[in-house]
């Protein structure tokens, strides 16, 4: 199994954002469940961060489809790891809206580890998202 984490820039206008997010969530829930994919989509400060987990070929197929989506741009893979265990077993996809400030924290982690991303730092971020999702 693979865990893939990428960031991208949202292209939705403020007016369209709410609808775009709910459309993305709706198709993600439907498609991801059928493909055995799980994960979360975090939005904040005009950026997306998504974690996708699942079988290798399904991950790469879905990611290449997501790359072509005009609702965002500048997709950048931050982390790919093989894993035996899902970090988000309970969500075919969940959307979490965070503040600009919180997203800045994520960007700082990315910027400070340009070549090799510190998996530990990301584990902490992921864990904090998990505990917030647990309240949903
Ligand atoms: C930031 C972002 C994340 C997305 N994540 C997923 C996803 O996890 N699963 C998915 O099926 N589609 C996702 N999409 C939507 C796909 O790009 C595509 O629109 C969708 O899979 C089309 O499927 P549908 O025709 O069944 O709606 C995402 C789009 C964006 C912009």
From TrEMBL:
Residues 1-94 form the BLUF domain. GO terms for molecular function: blue light photoreceptor activity; FAD binding. InterPro entries: Acylphosphatase-like_dom_sf, BLUF_domain. It comes from the Bacteria. Pfam families: BLUF. This is BLUF domain-containing protein. It comes from Herminiimonas arsenicoxydans.
């Amino acid at each position: 199994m693979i865990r893939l984490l990428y960031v991208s820039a949202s292209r939705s206008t403020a007016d369209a954002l709410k609808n775009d997010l709910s459309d993305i969530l709706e198709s993600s829930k439907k498609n991801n469940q059928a493909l055995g994919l799980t994960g979360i989509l975090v939005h904040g400060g005009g950026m997306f961060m998504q974690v996708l987990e699942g079988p290798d070929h399904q991950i790469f197929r879905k990611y290449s489809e997501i790359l072509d989506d005009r609702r965002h741009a500048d997709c950048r893979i931050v982390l790919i790891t093989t894993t035996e265990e899902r970090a988000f077993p309970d969500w075919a996809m969940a959307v979490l809206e965070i503040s600009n400030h919180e997203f800045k924290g994520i960007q700082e982690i990315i910027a400070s580890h340009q070549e090799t991303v510190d998996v530990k730092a990301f584990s902490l971020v992921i864990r904090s998202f998990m505990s917030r999702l647990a309240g949903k």
